[in-house]
Amino acid sequence: MTAEIYIISGFLGAGKTTLIRKLIGEAFQNSNVALVENDFGDISVDAALMKDTNIEIREMNSGCICCSISGDFVNSVRDLLEKFRPDKIIIEPSGVGKLSDIYKYCLDRRIRELAKVKAKITVVDVRYCKKYLDNFGEFFQDQIENADTVLLSRTNEYPDKIEGASELINNLNTKAPILSKTWNDIQFDELIPSSRKRPDYKALGGCKISKRKHEHKHSADEIFDTITIRTKRTFTYEELTKFIEEIDMRYGEKILRIKGILRSADGNLNLQYVPGDMSITTCSTSGNMLCIIGHGLNRQDIISVFNGGL
Questions:
Q1: What is the pTM (predicted TM-score) of this model?
Q2: What Cα–Cα distance (Å) separates residue 296 from each residue in 32, 48, 140, 145, 159?
């Protein structure tokens, strides 16, 4: 039987891992599922957090799938298919990965013999659509243009951003349905490409198509910086909050994503940060890792703040 591949794309911090948990827990709970996790850096925080799902996970770090590890990606997926015979494979590429490249590699004969791409879903945070398109269009635009379905996140908190985000997405992709309702109300079938017509959005009526084309093709490591920190220290909530505040003050919008699993006296802490939003929660996963992604970052300065500034 041919396995189904689901590619869950989206820029840094959009909500890809949250969607994957929803799929595994609701739509795929009776299936044999494998997950390919790719993080931009030396560690995969998301892969560590997903280990409590008891599914087969393959981690691919130190780059994005669309860069130097494309051959390893094809071999890894082929190996998964042959050894574990999954019904479904979920691929979560790095937030700075290009969906077009990932899809291309999934069409490789070695994969195509055993599996087919069922859906390419891109998650978009309504708060940062314009900002990310303006500043990182080569990557952000590619994720939207090549999606079968676009799923908006943060719509509950920022309903006033939905119309603008939908119009921007429509400028780049006129075929993919744009889902903006609460994730709890979204049914699995809505995420899958079908012959149904695209929903009508009042905000999109008469919208002119003016796609932006980028003349240069860059790899993620040419544009983005990633800093990996491993530590055996224990932290308090207050210490981690102070670190985020200090880094935010020094670098501002140059910081795009911080995530990690760190120790505290009372257990493990899951730190998640995107500009304007920080979350520190307890988790069952043990770890001693922190990953910081941005542009124009000073590695030694950030490590110094983390090690000596708390």
A1: 0.81
A2: 42, 27, 18, 27, 32
